[in-house]
User: Fold these one by one.
Assistant:
Number 1:
Amino acid sequence: MNRLASCFLSACFAVLFLISSPLAHPKDEWQPITPEDLALKDNPAVPGSKAMILYRSIERDDAMGSQIEYVRVKIFTEEGKQYADVVLPPFDRSSFNIESVRGRTIHPDGSIVPFSGQVYEKVVAQGHGLKYRAKAFTLPDVTPGSILDYRFLIRWESSDPATNMYYYFSRSEWEVSHELYQRSAHFKFQPMNHEGLWWVMRSINIPLGAKIDQDKRTNAVTLDLANLSGIEKEEYMPPEGEVQARVVFFYDSARIPQPDEYWKNFGKQWHGSAEGFMDKKGAVSRALASVVSAGDSAEIKLHKIYEHVQSFENFTFEAAKSEKEAKALKLRANKNVEDVINSKAGYRNDLNRTFVALARGAGFDATLIRVTERDSAILHKEWPSSSQLDYEIAMVKRDGKSVYLDPGSPFCPFGILPWEDTAVAGMQLDKNAPLWVELPSPEPNDTGIKRVAKMKLEDDGSLTGEVEVTFVGEDAYRRRFLERNEDEAGRKKDMQDLLQDWLSFKADVELVKVNEWKAANVPLVATYKLTVPGYASQAGHRVLLPSTLFAGAYRNPFTGTKRVHPICMEYTYDRSDDVRISVPAMFQVETLPKPVKQQNGVADLSVEYANENGTLHLTRDFKLKGLFIDQKFYAALRGYFQSIQAGTNEQAVLKMAN
Amino acid sequence: MNKLYSKWQINTLLLAGFCCVLLSGTPARAGDSVPDWFRQLAHTPLGTYPEEADGVVLLDEQTLTVKENGEIYETHRMAKKILRPSGKKFAYLDVHYDRDTKIQHIRGWSIAAGGQEYELRDKDAVDSSPFADAIYDDQREKIMKVPAADVGTFVAFEWEQHGRPYNFSTRWDFQRSTPVKMARFTLNLPVGWEYQYRFGNWAEQKPQSVGGNSWQWEVHDVEGVTEEPNMPASDSLAGMTAVSLYSTSIAQAARLTNWGEVAGWANSLNASRRVSTPKLQAKVAELTTGKTDTLSKIHAIANYVQHNIRYVEISVGIGGFQSHMAGDIFANSYGDCKDKATLLVTMLHEAGVDAYFTLVSSERGVVNPAVPTPWTFNHAIVAIKLPADVDTSALYSTVDDPKLGKLFFFDPTYDKTGFGALPPGEQNSYALVVTGNGGELIKMPLLSPPVNRLTRVAHMQLTPEGGLLGDVEETRSGNEATIMRERLIAADRDKRVKIIEQFLGEFFDRSQLTYASIGNLDKYDEPLILKYKFQAADYAKSAGDLMLVRPRVLGNKASPIAEDKKRKYAVTYDTTFIQSDAIDMKLPAGYTVDELPPAANVTAPFAEYKSKIESKNDMLYYSRSYTLKDPLVPLDQMPALRTFMRGIANDERNTAVLKKVQP
């Protein structure tokens, strides 16, 4: 569904918009059908497909408040028959409606079964004066080989000159990509043309050769394209919206400036509001008096302020409270840092603004950076859309270096940013806007998991002992954040499941203790008791011992041979194991796997084995350094992770001492 | 009725978002307070509950009142305490209704751990679609979320709802996943009305008279039915009571106290839908032309309905229980399970074959023969009456019933199940065969292991560097074929390659699929044949002058299912089966076998597993066979299952040691 999110009443247009053309309405005629399409057995471009779109069209008319969608699908397999069930998106009737649904099924012999069934409508959500409905229909008598045609009209409330009511959308969008392959597609956009209303078009991932035209008389924009791949989802891919073909039309009630000017204007506006929010010197001084001491070093002061702000209640990461609860708890929106300081509560941006205000109050050079989080989107500076920059984080200058901080994220350690905010572009709060900055990539040495195991091989082949796991940096933050709403029993189960997942054998895992769940600035250390039945296997007079206890932690994440999208890892890290296994005296070590030392642009790996007087000692260190990898290197990347996994299956060979 | 796939679900997230927005808009009101019954419950001492319990139900009360005119009203009271963060979900209530079962009123309260009291009323509820799988139904739900959803909070709800008109049979489900301190069911009947009740999965309990023609049952300290992997269906374990109300004063208030009466009720809804049309008759004639024996005709018609009538559920009001007209189902080529069953029965009748509309549960063990009630079925299939002389050797789902004769059970909805077989959940379960003059509850058969077979034959070659070249042929039948067909058919060609690659990835660190073919993918009555070739680098590991190689190569049969020593319920598998591997492996030149692992022979009352490894010249031969004879392993057999699975695991880990031959 096109995003009609910001539909609001605007009285800013001086001249009434008069409807000058008849209401948009689906045409009755369908696209002609060729014998070749009737006979088509498979998608030549993607053999083995369930179905493909032969033709798709979206004609959107913002002036008339309507959109006509037309889809022609060819069904190839039994499974592809699912595309005969069409559920149209839910809609709020106060904003828009779906009508004039038509459809038909064309058999491979050319015979046509018109859709004469019912279009079902049901209310899918209703309350507090709002009502969301959805419509659905199913096309009749569908078989593999059928061609399905359907079309429908979406109509939304148009501007009403009689009441001086005008609807204004901040943006319109064509979702050009579809889950199915599209052989041919046509899009048309007729912008609103009120006097004083401006618009611009921006697009991403439109294939080369696509034809975009604009009618100078009507301003209508058309896009025609062919052979567009279906949406492919893969592990570690960029945000879904960034790999799809999209065309966005931005509206504004003033002339839409060039990007530099747009961001300059936005930056000034943001500067005014953010500085206004933070400008409460009295409240800041009072708060600092209870947080820092005169004798504190600058570093300690900054840490104390960070921890103080991070201890506040954080609404961004809690379940939303109802109006009733908010009233009972006397909650109200924060208007400035004084409100945040007094209530000791706020949203993530409120807390980071409060941190910056307190840091400035303590004499630090601190400011805000506004970013686009890379788990959901990539910043497009050419788009006149400030909503891309959704979160604010703090930056403090220390010894000429920029330190990026996010006390507005619970359990995020000092000096670490949530990975979503690393390696992204952001705008720095500055009166001379726009001041763009690049946030640094995470450092592998700042984040990691270290597993230390002291184990004993029992006579029955089982392994028993203790394991200590230390999480630091992003890994500690993620684990604490994940468990923040769990109780002791829930956390215990999750931590035991985590260790079990790292093992390649089913084991008895018991979490003995965890040092500290609540503090952000100390590593998270978990201690376990572990028994692994049947760890060793016998072959005649020899005993074989897997050399990597935590083999499950090194599984190859890339199993498929094909790759469509670039690889985007979340963060870099260091994973290290130190495992000692004492073996019964009746055995002696016959052979050990060979050591490994590898370095490349993606990762470093070092594995060593030693026989230390009857104790096997394994050390393994894996450091992931690469964050963004082009898909053309996928085969090499996959091969590399395969070889790492293969290394975990090496075995030590023991034999009877005599 | 059973639902197979969803289109509405694609919008679930969006709709959930709508509901969250609407629920968070609950307006503030002054003077919230909770009723005395709830406050008293919140002050009652609690028992001890398992540490994994999300919460405890303090009171689950249901009152069913029948008016003189036959109208039915149900009132419910529910109070819970949230014990764990995962119990915050108890702050939500959702009550389903449709146009016949409207909600009269709904209220909600909570008492926060700090003592703050909250109250919600009808207008605070959000009305929504329950995201059912149907392409369309008129099911609705009222959702209410009381404030202060946190550990230590008490929550309570009360609602009144119209009973479905002329539905004088109900069930009281008092055992669910959460422990219950007290559950109560009260029946208020007009003078002259009678009732019958049957407890399922719970000891029989007599009601207390509470004045007039009113009766009450209470149960206390009911354990929660918690989830475990491979457990039986929770409805086959949880305590419930089926209640039938009847009176001579209202024609529809007939007894539903035995299975024949339940079948009569189902027949009254669906018999009139089996009306043929000229087009339907023409199709039957087309399908049966040239077919002289009855079984061929049955096969052709059953195959047509199973594969050409698309599963689409559209149900409105009583349509949730009543099929559409056979002619409409045929004309549209779509329908849900009861529609497909109705159409198949109608078409078979046209071909001169007797067949019966049949009610089942899609989950094994849910239909309890001792508890007759319509509210235990969720699916419809067909029982086809076979002439005495039909060869039933390949019709595995045939039963010889003393009254109805030879009955062949066929499910026209599960389209990946071959002719002659039954979906797993229906095997060894009860079916209510609806005949014109009543019906019979008949146990459907458990298909024997040879019906569900996976045979893997592989020719391998080990390279001096430890790489493995493999050429594998898998032959799958019965449920083994169905499972794989479901995955492969749902995938495009590229995704099918990925499925095989992922399978290889479970056993090889570095593998490359070099060839794959699939035979009989859409020939559901034939074995599914998978052929693939691969290369796997570093399969065998070098250790000095030794080479270590795992002879099992493919397939994981071992499972840690019985390792959980706190397990409460039996272990169930989908079906019986036989899985076998036969692998020959050519050894690299310059190596000889130094040590071989022992053969395995593990047996248990429900299964057996045997493996053998031999070497001859430069070849290694490994074979194994795993037979599951009974898909239900009772709780007292867990030690045997544990020993059995550890035996398999040992065999799967075993390694052969090759040694370099000194020149």
Note: Residues 638-653 of chain B form the longest helix (16 residues).
Number 2:
Amino acid sequence: MSIIAGLRRYAEVNGDIKTKLLSQNKVTVEDVNGQRYLGCALDSGKTIEIHGTAGNDLACYLNGGKILLYGNGQDAVGNTMGGGQIIIHGHSGDALGYGMRDGEIYIRDNVCCRGGIHMKEFRSMKPVLVIGQNAGSFLGEYMAGGTIILLGLNMKRGEKLFGTHCASGMHGGKIYVRGAFPKENLSPNIKISSLTDEDKKELDKYVKNYCKYFGQDYEAVMSKPFKKLTPVTSRPYANLYTSN
Amino acid sequence: MAVNYIPRRFTVIRDKNLCIDCGCCVRQCSNECHFFDGDGKTVVSDSENCVACHRCVDLCPTRALRIEKYVCDYRENANWTPQYQQEICRQAETGGVLLSGMGTPKPYPIYWDKILLNASQVTNPSIDPLREPMEIRTILGRKPEKITVEKKGKSTVEMPPQVIIETPIMFSAMSFGSISLNAQKSLAMAAKNLGTLFNTGEGGLHPDLKEYTDCAIVQVASGRFGVHKEYLNNSRFVEIKIGQGAKPGIGGHLPGEKVNVEVSNARMIPEGSDAISPAPHHDIYSIEDLRQLIWSIKQATDNKKPVSVKIAAVHNVAAIASGCVRAGADIVVIDGFRGGTGAAPTRIRDNVGIPIELALAAADQRLRDEGIRSRISLVAAGSFRCSADIVKAIALGADACYCASAPLIAMGCHMCQTCNTGKCNWGIATQRPELTKRLNPEIMHLRVENLINAWNHEIKEIMGGMGINSVDSLRGNRLMLRGIGLSEKELEILGIMHAGE
């Protein structure tokens, strides 16, 4: 039996979800209308399937669990997530994957500002963010690790792959972009390069996942060339200060 | 030869009659001021890099060393002081933003020194804390707006999570990275034994400190370093760092040189990479957004942990504090501009923010005026030098105080203000193994405990003198305070009368 969120308060809905997950590994929530914190700190082995519009901080501190969202996400999806998987059949708001340290996020459509801000990696933890359409300004701001893949599918005429100040303050990780992209929107100290064989292997894996989750044609997606964006230095502010 | 535009600051004076050339100072100085002469036997000094940390002075077995201020006069000028001239030269040389350690050394007014405490005479007898019970136990957390009781007198109100500390003194946030693990461990051990709390700062919790999670405040800053479900739940309360008194409006930046393997483990970032916590949390652009983060933490901790919000004392601090309370913070921390830091841009440290005394008084008054003061706990931070400062802060409205510089001084800090260089000879603000091993937590936690125990006793003594036997009766009790040499405006903001009134 699924949980009906309707117009109930988030605390109630989340309470119901937590109770159900004590005895089962998967919960379906329907008629979601912007309830916040769904899937907050969800542990490994647990899955929440959400229908409707999930509210802010969906899957914050995600702890290895899996979130399937049939609808759009709002702001701060996957905030400070430590692992797991988020698949959104729709678009997402600002600050997607803020400070995410591990796990995977797949967005079928576009994302707003500051996607992948503060993404970081640690040893075997390598977060991945796959965006089907395009991204707003400040994509990958302060990015310190992990991978963002920007596919640029179904873009309307005149739309750009990413907004201004892309990769501002980026000092780690990489962004793969497909097709034409607005170089003028890139921040200084970002290097554009071709993909190595290793990069291609990594890209392949996540693009395949994307196509599988959203029913896209893998060959068609891969028909356009990809480029890799990386920071020129891992210490962009190394010479900023002088000891007084 | 390159011109050195800046004269040195200090001179190391070595009494050759006392020096036995043992080389202790040579081994101790990370600034390499002492070395063996060409003969390999005679110890000599080059004062150029001396920061007056006194490590060599304090460890010299024959007391042969002394540090003196190096005097090199410029032509008298009240405007272009030597300091400004030297700072210009430093920037002309490097093009860098000036960076300093510890709190501002500028002679701004210190209101603690202009506030006098009361004592009882004849009418209301004073209390002797050696003989009579004296309560300084403090309870932090959100309090219900009203209490309802069932017939037998039992409360039917569900109490939000509370944190009980045995003294109104806690240790403020200092991350592992800005200070050494040994320094953090000393504070953790002291906190455990004293029944109070230490604060991990924004650097995550090192696995070695797992046994101290019962007395740990864990911080969530904009970089979200080391923040995960377990971290949030392994704590007494969770603190959202919005600002820091020493550098309001400025974030944290731990340079890659300090991110060694241990720091990288705690922060969960690769070794050698910069750890940047910018000033804004990019999920907080408003009080409503702050509410969102507060409640996300409460969701992740099943409402079991109080959440505090730490803000820097800035011009509108009272209104901001009110917003924090309304956003759902259980504890609001206000950090005054004299507070310490591992590193802050000099200009920010010396020019931005307001003193904690005024900020605390204004915020407490505002919350009382709005009828929401009793909902939350108010913690003051930003340079408490002695127990009297703490008593005055509580009387101005604080529930508890955060101290950091004082316990660091107990551990050996000499306020040389060069924490940012990472060369701390006392093993506090450094990650170099040869320096951090100088600080033995087994000894240092005792020194910190001694300090706080002494302060606790002094607080009890001062309270006893006022005829007050519980810290709850001192809180916000501004009648116990009188100003000395303050203007009417200052008295008005502090909400106290002038001495003699």
Note: DSSP finds 16 helices and 21 strands in chain B.
